[in-house]
Amino acid sequence: MEFLRPTSWGEALAAKADAPGAVPIAGGTDVMVELNFDKHRPEALLDLNRVGELATWSEEEDGRLRVGAAVPYARIIGELGGRLPGLAMAARTVGSPQIRNRGTVGGNLGAASPAGDSHPPLLAADAEIEVESAARGTRMIPAGEFYTGVKRSALAPDELIRAFHVRPAEGPQQFSKIGTRNAMVIAVCSFGLALHPSDQRIGTGIGSAAPTPRRAFEAEEYAAGELDWAGRSPLDERVARRFGELAARAAAPIDDVRGTAEYRLHALSVMARRTLTWAWKDYLNGGATACA
Amino acid sequence: MRVNFTVNGVEQTADDVWEGESLLYVLRERVGLPGSKNACEQGECGSCTVYLDGTPVCACLVAAGQAEGREVRTVEGLADGERLDPIQEAFVECGAVQCGFCTPGLLVQAHDLIERVPEPSDPEIREALAGNLCRCTGYEKILDAVRLAAARKAEAGR
Ligand SMILES: Cc1cc2nc3c(=O)[nH]c(=O)nc-3n(C[C@H](O)[C@H](O)[C@H](O)COP(=O)(O)OP(=O)(O)OC[C@H]3O[C@@H](n4cnc5c(N)ncnc54)[C@H](O)[C@@H]3O)c2cc1C
Ligand code: FES
Ligand code: FES
Fold first, then answer.
1. Which residues of A sit within 8 Å Cβ distance of B?
2. In this predicted structure, what is the pLDDT of residue A288?
3. Between A36, A45, A183, which is nearest B131 by CB?
4. Which of A3, A76, B44, B111 has the fewest CB atoms nearer than 10 Å to its CB?
């Protein structure tokens, strides 16, 4: 086994091109568990900790934030919580403080687990993933097209994730997750929601209730049409309930050790109803997200 | 491979390190610092918590090679010579140690908390220690110890 230590993005891409079987390691919170339990032995580890730019973020000219793949959750919460409230809420539920100090969104994307907590907020906020290879250059992949199967993504073997791009919240965002305790739980299922008031639209993301994280398109369209964006009248409870039903309908859960499919469908409808209710309340109270 | 890093202020070189080895293994088996405990090797228990460049992390989830050139501080590096750190004293006084397996990780994590948050509330303490499991004490005495150490630190700072 080899341990590759690129110190720049260019070197990292070259190393990945030379050894497509090399496993990138950022926070290591997924990779090291596999190694410690000898689940597999990759030909090489490709350490991304020395590629400084991956742990930085910036404001782009198109108004979006570009957040490096290796910015840990703790810094997303601390530095970007106000502008990416949905992602920050999700990040706060990841593992424990020690895990949040190391774990990254890039790693969550790389693992592409249907239960990864970054995915629902990235989907709800229309994030795009910037990936790159030495041979073919940069690709921008919308979050909705990134996840292709259970622990599978659109990332090619010679590509690395460089950053994700997302607009700062222009309306309230929410995230809800079901688990057996407050810390250290993989989601039984989860739901992310973002209001996009300027185009009178809702974004959603379902976690851990289908082979991949996915949006609930029908629910989004239904609620966007029913909500009184201009008049800002209170949310009709029937609309919230119907939104919940439609959100659950978009899922395709299975029975597993963490919960049954039936439970997940029920929980999803409740989470969708609640997050819409909370977000709309925030919207009526002034528009931006109250909880950052 | 060889890994060079600083542990508790002392430069260390570890040789014959397997590329897939964890920082925890290097500390315990190659550098002779068995304070950090190995109880799960999957990030769940926090008993291997160490500072990596000043940030508490699970040493079992850091690849040894990732520690190259970096600074690690373990539970062995909390005391000042023979003088225990106030968080260690408080753990002893409050009876927060039973079998002691969770203690090193809790000490580092609690040490970080009271460095960052001078007078932590109970929910803040619970949140900070959410990734450290103890199977013996029931946590109450641990909370007492953190409250005591934080109060003393605040007192000393006044
Ligand atoms: C105790 C514990 C609790 C956890 N709790 C949660 C939780 O609540 N919610 C949750 O979602 N996850 C949880 N996880 C899983 C894990 O912490 C997350 O998936 C985290 O986001 C992984 O980030 P990382 O940087 O540590 O990834 P790593 O382990 O470094 O990498 C993960 C995967 O992504 C690949 N990768 C990493 N960076 C890149 C890149 N830039 N380009 C291409 N591929 C890349 C790696 O090769 C690997 O396949 C938990 C893990 C542990 C150990
Ligand atoms: S041994 Fe590292 S967290 Fe349990
Ligand atoms: S004292 Fe035994 S595990 Fe905490």
1. 1-3, 5, 25, 27-29, 31-33, 35-37, 41-42, 44-45, 47, 49, 74, 95-99, 101-102, 182-184
2. 53
3. A183
4. B44
Q: B51 CA to chain A: closest CA distance, Å? A: 10
Chain centroid offset of residue B48 CA: 7
Do A32 and B62 meet the contact criterion of CB atoms below 8 Å apart? yes
| Domain positions in chain A | 2-48+58-166, 173-284
Q: Which residues of A touch B22 (CB under 8 A)?
A: 32, 35-36
**H-assigned helices in A65-216:** 73-80, 85-92, 97-102, 105-111, 119-124, 143-146
A94 CA to chain B: closest CA distance, Å?
11
Measure the CA–CA gap between A57 and A71, rounded to whole angstroms.
8
DSSP string, A199-244: GTEEEEEEESSSSS-B--HHHHHHHHHHS-TTTTPPPPHHHHHHHH
Closest ligand 2 atom, CA of B44?
3
Q: Which CATH number fits domain A2-48+58-166: 3.20.20.60, 3.30.70.20, 3.30.465.10, 3.40.50.300?
A: 3.30.465.10
Q: Is the CB of B137 under 6 A from ligand 3?
A: yes
- Chain B residues with at least one Cβ partner in A under 8 Å: 1, 18-20, 22, 41-44, 46, 49, 55-58, 60-63, 65-66, 68, 109, 127-128, 130-132
Residue B54 DSSP class = T
Q: How far apart are CA A214 and CA B55, in angstroms?
A: 34
Q: Which ligand sits nearest to residue A102's alpha carbon?
A: 1
Instruction: Give this prediction's pTM.
Output: 0.97
Residue carrying the six token digits 């000219």: A61
Are B109 and B143 found together in one domain?
yes
Q: What is the pLDDT along chain A (292 residues), one digit of tens a residue?
A: 999 999 999 999 999 999 999 999 999 999 999 999 998 899 999 999 999 999 999 999 999 999 999 999 999 999 999 999 999 999 999 999 999 999 999 999 999 999 999 999 999 999 999 999 999 999 999 999 999 999 999 999 999 999 999 999 999 999 999 998 888 889 999 999 999 999 999 999 999 999 999 999 999 999 999 999 999 999 999 999 999 999 999 999 999 999 999 999 999 999 999 999 999 999 999 865 444 3
How close does chain A come to B80, measured CA to CA in Å? 24
